[in-house]
Write a structure and sequence with these properties.
Length: 407
């Protein structure tokens, strides 16, 4: 009996996934549990196992295609099993169906994700894997993946003039990218945004449109942190905690002491948390990822530093699992290592706030009854006014400052 291969869901809010590559070709034997394909979400690239053993057949998705979660993109059939052509189609088997999408395919319930799904009943249309022109001679309908249609619209490309290289001769994303947009030189054409860049843009736009931001800045004397780092470097057999690790630890402690800031906005109102799950913004080549350090306030400095290094390494290698980026209650974004003195950040919805941290640099500041040159750092809080007010934010900042200056 044929088993559907579907685009899996890697997160609660995921709607589509991009097929990076197949590890098997159509007609190859596959074994249940072996790696079948590689899928990219906005947060990670994940290898997906085969849901059953058999022969890979009726592949309807090509690399670079954006595919809705739950959509069937191939079958795994038993050796020698014949798969019936689509039933109820106006086109004979040798002709193409209207698109590479499976009508009626939607998100699969969590209880079924990752397991083989039963074959669809007769009457459901499933695209077959034959190479035919993009426009079927009998129907004149155009075969194009969702990603190809989106790119064609963005770049001003007429799909009917693009030769398809995907299943059934469908036009896929790479075909559109190979065509210069109408009325412009290819080298001057705007490049389409990556999946990650699109998601960042959508989420940050949503944040600014829905969350009434307010901002608070405060300077911190980092002398105690620098002095303790010198001691830890001498004592440590491995990497000593970084300045960012001290900041993460101070923020985690302050969040545990200020439940109002450790909260998110929901349709029902403000939801506060007992656990401090601290998001850590990590820059990658094509955007930004925010892995989450769970129960950060319960970790000592060394354990927190180890966890932050591991997550940063996974993020930069695009190897984060969906669970690594879920459940954050607050975020820290540090651009100090890039020489930034101070900046304001956009809240990662639905969280209450984000702390933007600049570099540690020597400044002449008041010190007791005199002045002195001290290593200073500016931190700026962006907070959601629906959840907290200025006084709550200010007290939270004071706690962070106190923990750093007494490190």
């Amino acid at each position: 009996m044929a088993v559907d291969v579907i685009m899996p869901a890697m997160g609660a809010t995921q709607e589509t996934g991009r097929l990076v590559r197949w590890f098997k070709r159509e007609g190859d034997s596959v074994t249940k549990g072996e790696m079948l394909m590689e899928v990219e979400t906005d947060k990670s690239v994940v290898e997906v196992e085969a849901p059953a053993s058999g022969i890979l057949a009726q592949v309807t998705a090509a690399p670079d295609d954006d595919i809705p979660v739950g959509q069937t993109i191939a079958l795994i059939v038993e050796p020698g099993e014949e798969v019936s052509p689509p039933v109820g189609s106006a086109s004979p088997p040798a002709q193409a169906t209207e698109s590479t999408e499976t009508p009626g395919a939607g998100p699969v319930p969590a209880s079924r994700r990752g397991r083989a799904t039963p074959p669809r009943k007769a009457g459901k249309t499933r695209a077959t894997a034959r190479t035919v022109p993009a426009a079927g001679p009998a129907t004149g309908r155009l075969l194009a993946s969702p990603a190809a249609k989106r790119l064609a619209k963005e770049r001003g490309v007429e799909l009917s003039g693009v030769r398809g290289t995907g299943p059934d001769g469908a036009v896929v994303a790479r075909d559109v990218l190979s065509v210069a947009p109408a009325g412009s030189a290819a080298e001057g054409a705007p490049s389409p945004p990556s999946r990650m860049r699109r998601v960042i843009g959508e989420r940050m736009t949503l944040s600014k449109q829905t969350a009434p931001h307010f901002y608070l800045s405060m300077d911190v004397d980092m002398s105690a942190v620098e002095a303790r780092r010198v001691v830890l470097k001498q004592q440590a057999s491995g990497p000593a905690p970084s300045i960012n690790d001290f900041i993460l630890k101070a923020v985690a402690r302050a969040l545990a002491e200020s439940s109002s800031m450790n909260a998110v906005w929901t349709e029902a109102g403000v939801q506060r948390f007992n656990e401090v799950n601290l998001g850590m913004a990590v820059a990658v080549d094509d955007g930004l990822l925010v892995p989450v350090i769970r129960d950060a306030d319960q970790l000592d400095l060394e354990d927190l530093a180890r966890r932050s290094r591991d997550l940063a390494s996974l993020a930069q290698g695009r190897q984060l699992k969906p669970a690594d980026c879920q459940g954050g209650t607050f975020t820290v974004s540090n651009l100090g290592m890039l020489g930034v003195d101070s900046f304001t950040a956009i809240i990662n919805p639905p969280q209450c706030g984000i702390l933007a941290v600049g570099r540690v640099a020597p400044r002449v500041v008041p010190h007791g009854d005199d002045i002195a040159v001290r290593p200073m750092m500016t931190m700026t809080l962006s907070a959601d006014h629906r959840i907290v007010d200025g006084a709550i934010g200010a007290r939270f900042m004071q706690r962070v400052k106190q923990h750093l200056e007494q490190a």
